[in-house]
Amino acid sequence: MGAVLLGTTGRPKGLVHGHGGVVLEQLKHSAFHLNLRAGDRLLWYTTPSWMLWNSLVGALLVGATAVCYDGSPAFPRPDTLWDQAARLGVTVLGTSPAYLGTCRKAGVRLAGHDLQTLARVGVTGSLFPAELHRWLADELGHRAQVVSSSGGTDVVTAFVSATPITPVWAGELSAPCLGVALDSLAADGKPVRNAVGELVVRRPMPSMPVRFWNDPGETRYRDAYFGTFPGVWCHGDWITVTDRGSVLIHGRSDATLNRHGVRMGSSDICGPVEALDEIEEALVAGVEQTPDQAGRHGAWANWSDRLRCQVRFRAGRRFRHQTLRGSADLAPTPGDS
After folding, report:
1. CA dist., res. 87 & res. 99, Å (int)
2. pLDDT tens profile 285-301
3. What is the pTM of this model?
4. Do residues 124 and 93 make contact, with C-beta atoms less than 8 angstroms apart?
5. Residues 326, 332, 336, 337: is their CA dihedral positive or negative?
């Protein structure tokens, strides 16, 4: 079984997976994390080109029904996906923070949908801010559990998720998945708790890639995952493991922002910014500048004091006033949405 991982840096990786390991992981996640049973219905909004297609089809392993949806989840109305879930009596609905953010800003109220069969809402695909998590939980009430997960195409499954018996905290992922020896390591290779570290997996998982395509001697494979900490899988995400065992995802470690010696992920800024009603979507980039370059930013007419205060209040005083700047020089490329 093959998959292509584009990644954020370097050349695309052609992954070669073993069928048995992937099937075992999908069975585990369907049965123990999503709690799917025979007769249940799983609708996870995805495409066949994404690893979550395997999770959708994996529902069949426990006798559940896989519900496929072809079309936009937000057309003709922002709550179209919720309409489908209600109409089809879906047990588990899978979606993304981006879609949930669209629903929130559009004023979607889930109380207007008959979601009596809905037991869990799975969320993955990007960082899931605590503010958005709280909105979803408030809309669902006690009828359904929010299952926030994080994994990767590399392993065709999740590293961290929830279970029917684990508590759920806004902005956090409840626990490492069953059989995942997840840890957080500092740069010196020592475990850290309640502080930012690298997401690592200390023991093999059944669905780790067998090899990279066209990688004689497995040089690229070993460099990609075992180059940072010899003998330990390093996934390339910044995380915080709390004392209670939950996990916070901060973003890619190869895209880390460092302000005044403090490391932070893009979610530390995107979360507070996207909580504002007037912000549709946020992108954060760290730009290192010399003192004479610091003032060379285009004027942004709607860059408001409210936005500055929001970031400083939510993310902490490590952000000085002059480090928050707007730019009119960035625009989406054709095809971006």
Report:
1. 19
2. 655 555 454 444 433 33
3. 0.77
4. no
5. positive
